[in-house]
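To whoever is on call:

I kicked off a structure prediction for a single chain this morning and the downstream step that reads the tokens threw a length-mismatch warning. I double-checked the sequence; it's 985 residues and nothing unusual in it as far as I can see. Pasting both halves so you can look.
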Amino acid sequence: MSAIRWEPGLKLHGFAVTAHTPLPELNAELIELRHEVTGARMVHLAAEDDNNLFAVGFHTTPHDSTGVAHILEHTVLCGSEHFPVRDPFFSMLKRSLNTFMNAFTASDWTLYPFSSQNRKDFFNLMDIYLDAAFFPRLLERDFHQEGHRLELADPADPDSAVVFKGVVYNEMKGAMADPSSLLARRLNRALYPTTTYGHNSGGEPAAIPDLSWEQLRAFHATYYHPANAYFCTYGNLPLEEHLRVVEEKALSRFGHKAVDSAVPDEVRFESPKRLIETFPLASEESQERRSMVQVAWLTCPISDSFERTALSLLSNLLLGNPAAPLHKALLDSKLGQNLAPGTGYHDDNRETFFAAGLQGTEPEEAEKIEKIVIDTLEKAAQEGFPAERIEAALHQMEFAHREVTGDQYPYALVLLMRLLGPWIHAGDPVTPLLLDQDLERVRKEAAQGPFFQELIRRHLLGNSHRVTLTLRPDPGQAEREEAETAARLETLGAALCAEDRQRIRAEAEELQRSQEAEEDLSVLPTLEFSDIPEEERPVRALAGKESGTPVHWFDQPTNGIVYFTSHLSTRDLPEDLRPYAPLFCATLTQVGAAGHDYMEMAERMTAATGGIRAGTSVLESPGGLDDFAPLLEVKGKALRRNGEKLFDILEDIFTAPDFSDLERLHTVFNQIKTNLENSIPGAGHRYAARAAAASLSAGASQREEWSGVSLVRLAKQVAALAPGELAEVAGKLRAIGERLLDGGLIRCALTAEARAFDSVRPSLGAFLKALPRGAKEAAAPAGPFAPRPLRTGWAASLPVNYVTRVFRAVPLVHPDSPALMVLSRLLRAGYLHREIREKGGAYGGLASFDPETGLFSMLSYRDPHLIRTLQVYRDAAEWAASGDFTDEAVKEAVLSVFSEIDRPLSPGGRGNREFAHIRQGLSLEMRQSLRGKLLAVDAGSLRRAAERHLLAQWPQSAVGVMAGEEALRRANEELGDEGLRIERI
């Protein structure tokens, strides 16, 4: 932390302090600064946190859907003035101990954030990011690689057809085939027809080829200037050092410039609109109940902090739980199977919006859905909301504001995302972090009069800027789009003369040479093994018993929140019940309990907790591939003052869950089904890999049954049953609860500040004492698992492919485990990234070894290839076995492993992870030993690991592919005897 008093008016390194605001609820201080020459804006969140973050963002407002902002985000990371190598961003991923590195393109901003716990690493990365953002090379060949290009389909034939290629082109083909993503894009286009939000900043696949390299460079010259820049730093490193580096490395080379990136007000509609859009669906799939309907209003400007807070609360009151009036009215109508994606209040754009609707519906139901939404709003505007519901909504917002998250993204980035929109559009980064004053004002105004009723009338019922959007399936759309692309390519090809074709061929060859060239990466900063922490940071823990049940207590800085985790063994669950465990978990907190119906339970949870959820888990033993613990997990969290209420609710859920309401089960099952279906386009590689892995180990087989294609299929079967046909399923859920929700099976953990332990202990003890105790944890099943490697292709409505190959390797304690961890990073950075992403045009090419499961995987994401990718995997294994890599590459791979295993979690996440380690027998001593062995990995051990566990195990490895059915059939024609067994999900 800095010793300087950062008072307004202080000037240092070209910056002037404009404000200094304490943030006691966040244990931080916010310092605002302005660069005196360029006008660049900067905020620093000073906090006692060594996971320091840096980010630079730009207000980017595209005027078309060519994806210029998105392609530029990719291309600036392909080399810069001081780091003139092909791919410094991905190169630094392996030369760093970063805890996060990425870049994002939103509708009207582009952001480049990273975080690190290592001071040297932090400033190395700051150099890279500043040079990339302000002084990129923006070479034409990099634009062609990342954005789009024309190539000959057969490079050996100068007269062959031409094809489109490019990383972003293929990424957006995949993104725009996802109905949920498409709904969001089309809703933006409908609500904001005259401003930048009406365009697709990521790029429409049909429009991306219209973008020229010159336009890309002009966009950078216009928007990537300090006058249009927003810097953010966070953590315990001194602010003065950040200012010095930003000034010396970037801003000192710029003067002031007027940048017109302002977004005007949207032209308001005189009357509401109804629109119909379509999405591609494979002709083999049923169109029944595949449509989505969304009713949306443009509401207040992002600059009105109080109104935004009020609308967020209103959204919670209307939709926040199954008992909320609009949530209930929509689902009770049976016109759809789930709330439409994006339902709720959105305050990301300059003018915010509210939306509500249904998915799993039919196009002809759109007007009925619209009427339900409006009728429910009219009723709420007349009757208002009970005081206890308003207080519950206020509690939910307080909880979300206070919780220190960070398991998916760094907590600092979560805070930056809260303030970025208001900062860009209103010059106010402070108010989004000072929630209490707005909440208190809402509380007072709601107590004094019809506050929320007037809010509904003002922003919704009396607002003519309304859109009712229907997104329906079109089984012929994919074929039409392919035909249009083919016709466009044919026209382009016909217009090419011999010289043009030779130029295209030469450019492709030059690109390939640049991709394959060995580069001198010594210009990039790096770290050494001496920079790696010698020891893992231990998690403070106490072990004891409460009411006879083992409990682990983890002391963490949770900011006044208590986290409860319970594990219950499912080993004794009969085979006919085991597949239903995920459905049991998904319904357990969505049904009634102990005489309370599901609405009463939902309201109790909203009023007193930050959420209670259940799920399945598989914990493998570090000593054997097929020794695993199948578990039910029930978790809950609450503010410390609500600890007793949390355990009262948990007691009712554990002792008397009620699965008798078949109508409610029918609703929840349909929600589960649609959520799983929605997840496929964005997680095809995970589903494919899980399906392949299931044939290789017992734990992976159980994991696939509970979270893979098997679960999707079961959910679809159960959701297809009418309410009156669900008695048997309800009986299975009841039987699972009777067997598993037992004090003899439960093991618990509680994570909080140590000072909260004594106040929570009585409530936890009372909860545990109330549990029935008739069960004992069963022993692990005897007998080895028989691997049965499969080659399966899963057919779905996808224009791109997800290709995986999985190997059964070794458990964590095996001597080869450290080498395999490093090998996965070496393959990813040293081979697969180049071959699958740079050359192949896929969005991602990955390798992974999970020492806890003992499985080694190679995966591709949004990949235009299938056969080629399978061959790349073979080539990658042979490359690794050849030892054709340098000691520097090995060092980088080791650094990359430590970057992953030392990545910090949220306080609650740290407790959960340590509890899981204790449960699976993965001690701190074992983890510390692994660190030492990782540092000893060398080229020879990597080569031997590749020979032993990849090449030698090739015939026993499994293949899983998720793709369109036609792509799978074409692949099988080439694969012959090694073809894929094609199955539909």
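Update from on-call: the warning came from a stale cache, not from the record. Cleared it. Sanity check on the structure: The first strand starts at residue 11 and ends at 12.
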